[in-house]
Amino acid sequence: xxxxxxxxxxxxxxxxxxxxxxxxxxxxxxxxxxxxxxxxxxxxxxxxxxxxxxxxxxxxxxxxxxxxxxxxxxxxxxxxxxxxxxxxxxxxxxxxxxxxxxxxxxx
Length: 107
Hints:
Distance between the termini: 36 Å
Strand content: 5-15%
Strand order of the largest sheet: 1-2
Order of helices and strands: EEHHHH
Number of helices: 4
Helix content: 55-70%
Number of strands: 2
């Protein structure tokens, strides 16, 4: 959640960054996997088409994102069950994981 309110400057000098503890460097597939979890695969595919330089890159990142999305979905499900969150939230996560599994290339 790095955004303007978390970046401090003085003139043209960077003076501080807050709420940076969970930041990490990852493959672009990770960002698209998170996007899919919150906004769905249609949004990911639309944005990824603009992001990708060619069809090969598009397919590669989408492949990564779909596999990484399973990790995100299963983690979110574990968190929801452990926290005894409402059944609707758990069902939404299960639908996301199930839908993502159906998109995986089985070759």
